[in-house]
Design a protein that fits this description.
Elements: H1 2-25, H2 39-45, H3 49-71, H4 74-77, H5 80-91, H6 95-103, H7 108-117, H8 124-178, H9 184-234, H10 273-282
Length: 283
């Protein structure tokens, strides 16, 4: 798909280049050299309707980049102080305090560790699987937000090409209305303005796709590091090799809130039949 996209862009660029060469060749040799316009003025005059969509996409790209660098940081994904506190509480077998503290936090590490400890009643394998599933879910959300940079970046050249074609249509229309040589200067100016949209679209693509690769790598490295921290803490709950099921550690019974079954009141024991039958005899 990307190969076909690049081929279309290359073909459109060659077509525009050939049109520029033809337009320049139509200018008389005796024509005086015109004053060169500033680039900013050319850009302002070459703005078409598709350019406004490019500007809107640029605002969205900037907002996504700022949001990414504010939310995807080590201090937000897996704060070192939070990881150290959780490790200390688990080593001291204070599972209740660890789970309560993690539930109050919305970091990547806290949510993944909470999902793992919530399955403590089902054993180590269930905790390990729950941690991996939660990690995949949270990292998937981050990747989907960053994917918008890739989408807008790929749409930028297409919007620029649309604006260029729009300007070329107007330029050739003015050439036809001017009558051949009389409209050659207008054609060159129109092509120059039409290429402004291509410039804007390519600029949007460079920024969007470039930051998309950077954001994707940051998400991958930070989430993988946080997941490794969670799996490392879960090793404290791994059963000893060769231990019988009765000898395996049960973190749920030692204080993990969702797995604690010893706090439930015991059901009332039914009265014996002999006592029930003895009542009429005593009366």
């Amino acid at each position: 798909m990307h190969a076909h996209f690049r081929e279309r862009i290359a073909a459109a660029s060659l077509w525009l280049l050939s049109a520029c060469v033809v337009a320049v060749g139509q200018v008389p040799a005796s024509a005086p050299a015109a004053g060169r316009q500033p680039l900013l003025q050319i850009i302002c005059e070459g703005i078409e309707i598709p350019s406004y969509f490019i500007f809107a996409g640029s605002i969205v790209v900037i907002a996504l980049i700022v949001e990414h660098f504010l939310t995807v940081r080590r201090a937000v994904i897996a704060p070192p102080t939070q990881v150290g506190r959780a490790r200390e509480q688990i080593e001291n077998r204070d599972f209740r305090a660890c789970l309560d503290a993690l539930r109050e936090s919305r970091t990547f590490f806290a949510q993944t560790m909470t999902a793992a400890l919530s399955h403590a009643r089902h054993g180590f394998d269930a905790m390990h699987e729950a941690a991996l599933e939660k990690s995949s879910e949270l990292s998937g959300r981050m990747f989907r937000r960053a994917e918008y940079l890739n989408i807008i970046g790929n749409l930028g050249p297409l919007l620029g090409l649309l604006g260029t074609v729009w300007g070329m249509i107007e330029a050739f229309g003015s050439l036809g209305a001017g009558g051949g040589q009389a409209g050659a200067g207008d054609l060159a100016g129109g092509i120059s303005k039409a290429l402004v949209n291509t410039l804007l679209g390519l600029s949007l693509a460079i920024v969007g796709i470039g930051f998309f690769g950077m954001c994707r790598n940051r998400i991958d490295s930070l989430t993988v590091a946080a997941t490794v921290e969670v799996l490392d803490l879960l090793e404290y709950f791994r059963p000893a090799p060769g231990a019988r099921p009765a000898e395996r550690p049960a973190p749920a019974a030692t204080g993990a809130a969702p797995a604690a079954t010893s706090t439930r009141p015991a059901p009332p024991r039914p009265a014996r039949a002999s006592n029930v039958d003895a009542a009429p005899e005593g009366s």
